[in-house]
Amino acid sequence: DYTQMINSMPGVNAASPDGFGLTDNSSYTVRGFNASEVGVTMDGVPVNDVGDYVPYPSEYGEARNYASVTLMQGSADIDMPDLGAVGGHIAFITQAPTKDFNVYVGQTFGSYDARSTFVRVNTGDTGPVRSWISFSQNSNDKWRGAGTNDIRRVQAKSLWTINDRNSLTFNFNYNHEANYFYSPMSRSQFGENGYKYDYGTRWLTTPKGGFPSSQLYGDDPTYQAQNNYYKLYQNPFKSYVTSLDGEFRLTDDLSLSVIPYFQYGMGNGSYPGFLPLRAGANGKPYVAMDQDADGQYAVLDAYQGYTYRPGINAKFTLNLGMDHTLEWGLWYERSRQNDFINASYVDPATGSPSSIWGDRDLLTYADGKVWQNYNEHDTTTVKKLFVQDTWTPTDSLTINLGTSFLDTTRQNQFVMYPGNTDPDYGTAQLDSRNNYHKFLPTLGVSWQVNDANQIYYSLTKTFRAPEDAATYGNSRLGLPAPLPESAWSNELGWRYNSGPLNVHADLYLANMTNRTAIGLDQNTYINYYINAGPVRMAGFNAEGTLELGHGLSLYGSYTYTQARIKDNLYLPSTDGSAGSWYATRGRQFTGAPRNMAYLGMHYAHQGLTVDLNGKFTGSEYGDFLNTDKVPSNFTMNGSASYDFGDHGILHHPTIALNVLNLWNRHYLALPYSPTISAAESSPTYYVGAPREWYLTLSTQFF
Predict the structure, then answer these.
(1) FRET partner for 634 with CA separation of 20 to 30 A, picked from 115, 134, 450, 651?
(2) Which helix (DSSP H) or strand (DSSP E) does residue 620 occupy?
(3) Residues 201, 145 contacting (CB under 8 angstroms)
(4) pLDDT for 255-275, tens place per residue?
């Protein structure tokens, strides 16, 4: 997935527990900003989750269909449709259709029964239209624990060249996945249970009459086995993204780019829950109103979500003469999300859930109303206006000056235990409407010193509204709503390009205010959102390529990051707990190693291609107090391929071998669930995938 692809770039600390990239359980930080603080677009369409900003790497199509993946660190271009990009932007562009008809086929086999079948058909020119469509099926067994991951994808692109001034491009991406979660681990679990510890594969039969409520959350071995059973930790999801990119030359000096789009997503992340079930007259169990009653049975709790996300992004570009180019535009989006947790029946003897999608055999109350832990409906309306002037007073000097106005309105309706008429069990409802807006100026200066050297500076303000779930939890616990995150990002850089050497280095400073931290109230188990105060991210990036000749080249990158919390953290009191101060001032932010380095070697000659690369990731903390730290790690990957040339209708038949984690390092990486204090709650981490190999046979027909 793309988290693995960007891991060579400076500033990126990526973790993917599945070498084949078939899980949404991947994440990363960029210069200390976490993945939800970095915007992601695919062919100009925003694809981060609209509610909590999280990107889901396995949903964004096949890597073989990418033409480019671009990482903008610190801030995004002013015309990007980003709702929450407070720390950077990642842009995917898929390949353009070819003018000639051809069929590309690839088949992969590998470790843990990994299989991938990929077919892409280019129609070639059919009048003024050329298109491609691809189909793929990817699967593998989990390398630890049990379960099989399966992803099926359909992607398509069609370009209609109306004339030499106007064109329309249609993009479509469909993703259908049925995956299992990998269990994150704390350092103590990693040491005590070993590298391959995961969710359990043994189910113990439910005691007759169910569990007494007193046995839940305790050490009872039957309860523990059921609560850790792998079949109850699944992640099915299906989605599609479609867009129409219109590029129009209105006059010799004025052009318009407009992209209307629509996204749909449906699926869940499931985990075991326990409910008091009673035998119904029709033989189907129902849920008792008193959720704390005895007679508890394991059920599949499905954290379900539906997303409907239409939007449009439009930009005008006007050549004013006098070395000025003016850009202005509008982004508008109005999305609807419905999130809820419902429960499906689980066979008490075998542990098999009746439905992993949460769409049938749902448990109800005695009156037939579907049991739900909560139901949340969100409508998020985003409006962004932007304008930017690019001035080139001399051939060597370019100045960009612009501003945008980002306006986000969240309308939220949250109902706890809808349909439960027991007044003692916390049924509650909250309706809210919150608006967040800010002007976001940007400045960029670039000086081409000579043919080889360029110096640049940029200053940008970024901003994002709180997550949609923040309103209910804070209100229920009597806490104020969190403030929006924002940052001023500075970057001073140098580029050198001469002959075989290409170097890029920069210094950066980002002062972030109101960084959000998530806590859990131990009495109600409700999440709340607080501002952890200002965080200062400063550091140095460098990367370069060196062409050594005879097909051999080197690439390297290095990053130093200081992500320092500037104030002590106050955890406010709630209805059930007293407030607490934590001495976080001067500590390094979680998931931000101070040092990272990457070195890669590439050799290509007469059909043979060999790549070897290594990544060093320094130690990193999992808690705000910096008391829980995982050691540094170094992993190596290698690949070799051979292109057999053309043979009749076969063009470039190729065999390729990829090996990940060559030395089979066993390590913990990026924090999965950071905490404030490891003494109070242990943080968990991603577990790096072991050595894995993949053999791919591919060719193009015609």
Answers:
(1) 115
(2) strand 620-621
(3) yes
(4) 999 999 999 999 999 999 999
Q: Rounded to whole angstroms, how far apart are CA atoms 341 and 639? A: 44
CA gap 267, 263 in Å, rounded? 14
pLDDT score of 525 more than 70: no
Cα separation, 537 vs 13, in Å, equals: 15
DSSP class of 320: E
With vertex at residue 252, the alpha carbon angle to CA 246 and CA 254, rounded to the nearest 5 degrees, is 50
d(C-alpha 133, C-alpha 120), whole Å: 6
CB of 494 closer than 8 Å to CB of 453: yes
| Number of Cα atoms under 13 Å in the Cβ half of residue 105 | 8
Tell how far CA 421 is from the center of its chain: 38
Q: Which residues contact 414 (CB under 8 A, 6 or more apart)?
A: 374, 375, 376, 429, 430, 431, 432, 471, 472
Structure tokens at 451: 């043919």
3-class SS string, 228-264: CEHHHCEEEEEEEEEEEEEEEECCCCEEEEEEEEEEE
Beta bridge partners of 456: 446, 493
In DSSP terms, which residues pair with 338 in a beta bridge? 306, 377
DSSP readout, 459-505?
A: EEEEEEPPPTTHHHHHHHTT-PPPPPEEEEEEEEEEEEEETTEEEEE
With b for 16 or more beta-carbon neighbours within 10 A and e for fewer, the 519-546 pattern comes to bebeebebbbbbbbbebbbbbebbbbbe
* Spatial separation of the C-alpha atoms in residues 378 and 356, rounded to whole Å: 24
Contact, 32 vs 537, CB < 8 A?
Answer: yes
282 pLDDT higher than 90: no
**CA atoms of 692 and 16, how far apart (whole Å):** 13
Q: Are 600 and 611 in contact (CB under 8 A)?
A: yes
Q: State the pairing for strand pair 66-73/296-321.
A: unpaired
Closest CA to 372 of 306, 322, 448, 302: 302
Q: Per residue in 559-576, pLDDT tens?
A: 999 999 999 988 877 666
Q: Are strands 39-42 and 88-94 parallel, antiparallel or unpaired?
A: parallel
Half-sphere exposure of 369 (CA within 13 A, CB side): 11
519 backbone dihedrals φ, ψ, rounded to 5° = -120, 170
SS3 67: strand
pLDDT for the residue numbered 456: 98
Judge contact between 287 and 279, C-beta under 8 A.
no
* 8 Å CB contact between 73 and 31: yes
H or E element at residue 425? none
Report how far residue 410's alpha carbon sits from residue 649's, in angstroms, rounded to the nearest whole number: 56
10 Å Cβ neighbour count for 550? 9
Structure tokens at 294: 């005895």
What pLDDT shows up at residue 256? 98
CB atoms within 10 A of CB 165: 13
Q: Which residue has the tokens 């008091």?
A: 276
Q: Which residue has the tokens 């349909």?
A: 419
